[in-house]
Amino acid sequence: MAQQKNEVQSLLEKAMFQATVADFWMAGLELGVIKTNQRDEASPKEVCSGIPQFIIGVKGLAGFFGTSVSTVNRWKACGLLDDATLQCGKVVIFELPKVIEILRVSDKKNKFNVKS
Q: Which InterPro entries does the entry link to (predicted)?
């Protein structure tokens, strides 16, 4: 704590043009302008605010993404969409924000979106 006060005091004594980036960073922390535990990423609900929460059926999901039904069936069969799928009998409901997140992450993992 004493060391930090000494650093702040030395920062106050410096001329503005002599300050380094670290000095400005420390001043920002002291003034509360910079917060160290703040995340810049938006939550999935903020990103997906303009789209429906759920989509019913494989055809509905294929229509939303503009892909073929067989592509969505392939994603579902290989287990890629298991975390975002609710199924009761023949009725399949997809949680769209989760599907988007899964496809976004899996597209970065490998070429063919296969769950590893």
A: DUF3853
